[in-house]
């Protein structure tokens, strides 16, 4: 039987192979580093890399005690601090900036035996100004934003998993643009200490991987768990319609309809619901909360380096100027009411199905695509998992996301495992 190249093994496959003695952490890291050397000039996913350091860390993992993530190479979005690599936040303001400590998620991953490969590209301060990363499926197309380097690195076989962040849709969209899986956990499940945040009530650290199983195993492994919930067969799915569906491409809508039919044929309960107006109104609120909070979070950069910010970010920060504190607090209260109303929205459903992006990755690199489909669910602090469900007219993936109840990450991951597997089977 032909075995997959080591750089194409997933998280679970790496852990299993190392525990069986079929390979070593050093061999897996070397395979990933070889792929990076071969492809990074074209894909531009990695922005900081030290092969000797990564290999030395892998050898220490081989020599150490068994651990839940032992030997798993991972990459880190460059808005998350690392002590061994520069962290430049996608901005010329921080060129060569070297933190003194790892962010909490990086430190915990290494504590669990994972091997840090290096840093991957981010949009400027994890906002909408794109990075230099390319979509490995088609280099002239965007990989999405702002976790562009994370998605590109995973999709191209440079790393089996990468940390990303999401404030609107920065995990779910690049994942499907690049044909892989994005997992944004429940808000706060992965500690955000050491993240250069822009919207503290929304910023969420998650992962991009090549399967739902890998995304689940790595993220739950940060908390010491060795088990992944088995795919939940015959789930109850609510397809949530809203005015945002008017912006979805015909290919995305057709792929969702095919997936609905496939789910029903497999015994799942599928119903269509409409997003209540009170929750749909929160989509606009999300952007204004971001503008207010980002203007505060980036106060130093705004006051002292405004001319070194991109025009797009300058405009977004300026849009927060006229938001008074009373309006901001009222929006926070409106969001809190929305979170309280989520239980009624789900009803008896195990998960909500929703588009993850308008369509396939756009040609060109000046824009990272619209983040509209993640705004509400990120503001509501709900876990979501995105994955490809078909192809657009250009032959690139289109995708959907499953949203779970607050704190029910293992359940939505179990549902996503089943649904993503059905989607992958095709017609």
- Sum up the overall morphology in one term: globular
What is the CATH fold-level name of the domain at 6-221?
Amidase signature (AS) enzymes
Low-confidence runs: none
CATH architecture of the domain at 6-221: Alpha-Beta Complex
The biggest beta sheet is recorded as: 11 strands, mixed
What is the rounded distance between the termini?
Answer: 27 Å
Compute the average pLDDT: 96
How would you characterize the overall build of this protein?
Helix 10 (282-297) crosses helix 13 (325-340). This protein has helices spanning 11-20, 25-43, 51-63, 104-111, 148-155, 172-177, 212-221, 250-265, 277-280, 282-297, 299-304, 311-319, 325-340, 342-346, 375-379, 409-425, and strands spanning 46-49, 73-77, 115-120, 161-166, 181-184, 204-209, 236-241, 269-274, 351-355, 384-391, 397-403. The chain has a domain at 6-221: Amidase signature (AS) domain (Amidase signature (AS) enzymes, Alpha-Beta Complex), CATH 3.90.1300.10. It has 427 residues and is α/β, with parallel strands linked by helices. The longest helix is centred in the N-terminal third of the chain and has 19 residues, at 25-43. A hairpin with a 5-residue loop joins strand 10 and strand 11.
């Amino acid at each position: 039987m032909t075995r997959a190249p080591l750089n194409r093994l997933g998280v679970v496959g790496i852990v299993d192979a190392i525990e069986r003695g079929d390979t070593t952490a050093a061999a897996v890291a070397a395979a990933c580093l070889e792929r990076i050397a071969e492809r990074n000039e074209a894909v531009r996913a990695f922005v900081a890399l030290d092969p000797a350091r990564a290999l030395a860390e892998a050898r220490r993992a081989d020599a150490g005690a068994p651990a839940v993530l032992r030997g798993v190479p991972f990459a880190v979005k460059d808005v998350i601090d690392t002590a061994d690599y520069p962290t430049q936040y996608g901005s010329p303001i921080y060129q060569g900036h070297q933190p003194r400590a790892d962010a909490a998620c990086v430190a915990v991953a290494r504590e669990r035996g994972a091997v840090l490969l290096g840093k991957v590209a981010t949009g400027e301060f994890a906002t909408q100004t794109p990075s230099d990363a390319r979509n490995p499926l088609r280099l002239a197309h965007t990989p999405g934003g702002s976790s562009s380097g994370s998605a590109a690195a995973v999709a191209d076989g440079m790393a089996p998993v990468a940390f990303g962040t999401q404030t609107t849709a920065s995990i779910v969209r690049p994942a499907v643009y690049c044909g892989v899986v994005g997992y944004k956990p429940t808000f706060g499940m992965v500690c955000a200490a050491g993240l250069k945040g822009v919207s503290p009530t929304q910023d969420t650290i998650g992962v991009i991987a090549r399967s739902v199983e890998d995304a689940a195993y790595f993220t739950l492994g940060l908390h010491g768990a060795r088990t992944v919930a088995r795919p939940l067969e015959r789930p109850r799915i609510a397809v949530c319609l809203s005015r945002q569906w008017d912006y979805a491409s015909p290919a995305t809508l057709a792929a969702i309809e095919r997936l609905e039919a496939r789910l029903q044929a497999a015994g799942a309960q599928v119903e269509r619901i409409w997003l209540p107006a009170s929750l749909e109104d929160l989509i606009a609120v999300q952007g204004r909360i971001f503008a207010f909070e980002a203007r505060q979070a980036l106060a130093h950069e705004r006051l002292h380096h405004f001319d070194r910010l991109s025009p797009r970010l300058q405009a977004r920060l300026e849009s927060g100027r006229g938001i008074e504190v009373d309006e901001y607090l009222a929006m926070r209260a409106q969001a809190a009411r929305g979170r309280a109303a989520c239980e009624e929205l789900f009803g008896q459903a195990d998960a909500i199905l929703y588009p993850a992006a308008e369509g396939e990755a756009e040609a060109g690199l000046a824009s990272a695509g619209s983040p509209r489909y993640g705004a509400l669910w990120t503001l509501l602090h709900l876990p979501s998992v995105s994955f490809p469900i078909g192809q657009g007219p250009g032959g690139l993936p289109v995708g959907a996301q499953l949203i779970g109840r607050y704190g029910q990450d293992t359940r939505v991951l179990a549902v996503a495992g089943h649904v993503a597997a059905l989607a992958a089977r095709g017609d």
